[in-house]
Amino acid sequence: MSTANTVAKPNLKWRVVDIAVASVIGVASALIYWGVAIVTYGPWEAMDILVPGLPGLFNGLWLFAGPLAAIIVRKPGAAIYAEVVAGVLEALMGNMWGGAETFLIALVQGVLAEIAFLVFAYRKWNLPVTILSGALSGLGCWAYSFFTHLQAIDLGGSYGVMYLVTTVISGVVFAGVLMWFLYVAIAKTGALDKFASGREVRNA
Amino acid sequence: MEDNASLTFEGWGYRHASRRHFAVRGLNLAIKPGQRVLLLGASGIGKSTILEGAAGLLGAEDADGVDGNGVGTGAEDSDGGVTEGRILVDGVPVRRARGRVGLVLQDPDAQAVFQRLGDNVAFGPENLGVPREEIWRRVHESLDAVGLDGVELHRSIMHVSGGQQQRIALAGALAMRPGVLLLDEPTANLDPDGVTQIVGAVKRVLDSHHSTMVLVEHRAGPWIDLIDRVVVLGLESADQAAARVEGTGSEGDIDRTGFRRTVVVADGTPDEIFRDPSIDFAALGIWVPERYRRPEDEIRRIHTPGEPDTDPAVGTGETLLSCRDLAIGRNGTAIAQHINLDFAAGQITALVGANGAGKSTLSLTLAGLLNPVGGAVVAAPALAEGAEGDSPFAWKSTELASRISYVFQNPEHQFAKGSVLEEVMVAPLRCGMSHEEAESRARELLKRFSLSQYANANPYTLSGGEKRRLTVASALAAAPRVLILDEPTFGQDRRTWMQIVTLINTLRADGVSIIVVTHDRELVTALGARLVELVPDRAEGEWDSDVVRVSEVNARTEPVRQSSRSPLLASINPVYRLISAFLLSIPLLFTLDWVSATVALGIEFVALLAIGFSPWRVVKSTWPIWVGAPTSALAVLLYGKAGGSTWWQWGLIHVTDRSAELAIATAIRILAIGIPAIITVLGIDATDLADAFSQILHLPDRFVYGGLAGLRLFSVLQDDWAALTASRRSRGLGDENKFKAFGPQAFALLVLSVRRSTTLATAMEARGFGGDGPRSHARVSVVRPRDRAFLVVCLVIPTVALVAAGFAGTFSFMGGGA
């Protein structure tokens, strides 16, 4: 997509519609995360026994709210905001990772996803940057796991490395590549006409 | 109390993002204080754009598109639109007259920001910075003005009828004390009772406040006594002297070739306008109010070429589908029982009844999308032939799609493909038709429904009426013998209405049994349909029809919801509850050993028992972590840090004394961290949490309340997900592998969520949200000494656990070294 590359002077002020869309992406994502958690529980253990760290491939399915909100809304903090809204919702509902903790993990993943767009000063909106965002988000997810419930596993050992590789790959695929094409598909429906991101696709 | 303002359009125009033509251009219109104007014009002429403009919602928040005097500069704003000219309220540019204009939108559900009813009314005054005592005085006054005095303010907005929701939206607008009230089809989504409620409420308001009003409404009949001025809009083109008013191009978006400006083609009292023989109201898509109807305006039975001679209320006599002692309901509780009905080929049946009476439940059950609570839906042999059994609910999705099809009220619940042609080909392909055959069938249907020119277009980009025609075409593609349509004429203007009615009538020639869920009397008349009415127990039917008795709509009082099972926890400030969850859990991360984890878990169970949680209740509330903890423990057992004697080694798996000990510690610690983290926050009311974020943590209101509004859509999106699942089953996509089906459905959910949030943003801005001025708070987030004491206690628990580990000598920082 050569169309979505640089914006000369990005408008970084949040409009009400930016806030509403970013938060609802967070809410819809939380709904999907919850479904993913139920579906992947069975295969997770089996895969972990089969190849250590392999289930990290699922992790990207819990990382996409941040990159998606960022590339649609294109405002500073969009990735953090969407992930945190999703995390707060999960905390209020109660889930597998334990209430208030989802708030923390969401913050870590959101901040990491945000960094990709920040380093390009919110001027580059394309597939490679989205992939970087997904990868960083995966890194955050991995680091958080080893800081908390996988402390007992050597993060430099074969399990740790394998889990890092699979989680980052998953972040790249699900939270990066897939989100970019999902954004393009949503833009084609005309739902994003009020956003610069949507008009870029529609007027291309 | 008299409070009204003038509204003036000076050469005003607006072009929406990604559109080639202006929606409205060069509009000059002056409305005097206290006037009550009905704004008419063909569908797509820009009436909603005019109201949004008048409410100050267009032209974006940046200065680029509009200069200091509110005059459009012709530059693109951050919404991608372009403004020309200006709109003044009492001589002030509308974007600087915050709160002077109140807007009520069509969809009542889209205008609710908060869960509790009273908070929604208070929202506008909060955004205007009105002091707290004054806010609540206005809330009571406004609810009183719309006839809802005495209603419980804590009642959930989801638990009141559509008519009441819309009255609450009106009260929310009134609480801002607007001088101008704008109503954008406020009754289009309501049943007849809801329409009466809203018209009555607006009348009371106008009688007491004498506000200026601008109303946009296709069906103006019930409103006509309130109106003192009717304005009919048209277009003027460069190449024609006379203004064009009719829609000529594809419906929904009128032909704008050579479009130069929006003009007022007729302006006068209702008597003058509606008795003017030179205006073709049918072509304008306007329903002429009953009292002014000329013979040609009357709705009669319509006829289409090739229709059968049989009476549509009876059909051919060949029964296709029957209910046998059927009981219906959504959660296993019957809302209606002992239903016995037959549906015949060529017959049109109208299911009618008040909102919430269960029309959709019955129709979904008939469509094989909901399981009957009792009795049975039976497909006649002619319909069931080739399928497994005669119960539609038990059929496979592909068997269902070629026999019974369901057209959802919201077309976007149904779309599955990226182009119009593929959309129509879905069901035939799933039912085993070859690609060529499916394509030729699809093209034939597109031609019949005048959609051929959009074959390659994205379904979502069509206009409202086109989307509806597309969903009917897709539903018919697999040649079902029974077609069920949910509110097919909802919110349509008279022209699109006529197109849909004609379309339904032509289906009789195909021997299809048609069931429409509706509250549109004119639809029933035009189709000559058989009537089946759902009537609550002890209530009287409103229609002259077959009556199905349903349980009464729940009307009991609603208790104030507690934010925790423990009264103590419920009394703690939400932000303090959130912080306490971190204080309880984070310190435990410093060491990974079984002593600290077990001590913490033990104290937690005792503490929870003391504040009212039995151990069994704790396990029930936190079950997901009891499932999750073993997963991590297993990974640690197999791959964890090694030490001591080896129990088992195979490949990378290395189970040792140390990894086993660490696995146990990991599992116990996950419980010790997770249980309090869940229990302390579980049940916190989202609104109370938002208030605390704003008032105690001083987070910016825009983000806090924007996020809160998003959270409220959660239940709406859950319903969307259920509708998407049902529609996919109805279209033959339901048998797919769960993983394969997940992607497209998640996509549809995200598109819906973006659309819903865009509408929500409009509704919030219409209440003055997002401005730069100071906001006030209707609710106070209180912090008491007990909140601080609670934090201290929460910090003591992990501290004791860590000290215990230190004494026991098991303390192992972050799980120790490799």
Automatic annotation (TrEMBL), chain A:
The keyword Transcription regulation does not apply. It comes from the Bacteria. InterPro entries: ABC_thiamin-permease_prd. The chain crosses the membrane at residues 12-36, 56-73, 80-97, 103-122, 129-147, 159-186. Keywords: Membrane, Transmembrane, Transmembrane helix. Pfam families: ABC_cobalt. This is ABC transporter permease. It comes from Bifidobacterium avesanii.
TrEMBL record, chain B:
It is a multi-pass membrane protein. Its main location: membrane. It is found in: Membrane. The chain crosses the membrane at residues 578-611, 623-642, 662-684, 789-814. This is ATP-binding cassette domain-containing protein. One of its GO terms (cellular component) is ATP-binding cassette (ABC) transporter complex. It comes from the Bacteria. Keywords: ATP-binding, Membrane, Nucleotide-binding, Transmembrane, Transmembrane helix, Transport. The keyword Transferase does not apply. GO terms for molecular function: ATP binding; ATP hydrolysis activity; ATPase-coupled transmembrane transporter activity. Residues 7-260, 321-561 form the ABC transporter domain. It comes from Bifidobacterium avesanii. The lineage of its organism: Bacteria, Bacillati, Actinomycetota, Actinomycetes, Bifidobacteriales. Belongs to the ABC transporter superfamily.
